[in-house]
């Protein structure tokens, strides 16, 4: 089987500054992988190379055995930052329909486009919000609407750059529960800093800091995290109480 994503000896530089160096990486179909690493380590650059938005300085990239720009119709993408003028009168459905531009004919959305958008909204639990202004949604609902936009084209590969940025823990948990369900039919690659939480649903961790290494989630420990981020970090426990003796039972950890 062709892997969903394959990079072979890929390097990328901005002028003289090398961001990624000799990266060889394979993401098999059906994987749920998380990309982690320090700011400036090359995580977003890696995603944009996979999408074909950047051209590697050297090396080869393929999606499902094809060049990235030949596989766009099979990919859904949610960027890290989506700049929206909240005064612009756009509905939630309008935003989601943008995910059909690769499939639409001309400048008019077809009945099939409308059905795909409504189905995507149903999957993310926003069916009743379709006609509401996008600006009226909460932070977590906006993230779900943007996920629906990425799902609208019925992708086989979903790429997401910090999908839980600026949402509360409850919304974050809900989003990753949704992604875990979607993984039954598509390959998912997520950029995130939240190692402890996300490792419960992902299958592998891609560590990016100019070089790239892949680990199973079971290998995550303090030593590895130190190597990824290049310094000591504190792990904070959530959703439990310590006993009077100070012993903590629950191992649900988050990186802070």
From TrEMBL:
Pfam families associated with the record: ABC_tran
Domain ABC transporter: 5-235
The keyword Transport appears for this protein: yes
A Gene Ontology molecular function term of the record: ATP binding
InterPro entries tied to this protein: AAA+_ATPase, ABC_transporter-like_ATP-bd, ABC_transporter-like_CS, Metal_Ion_Import_ABC, P-loop_NTPase
Record-linked SMART domains: AAA
Stated name of the protein: Cation ABC transporter ATP-binding protein
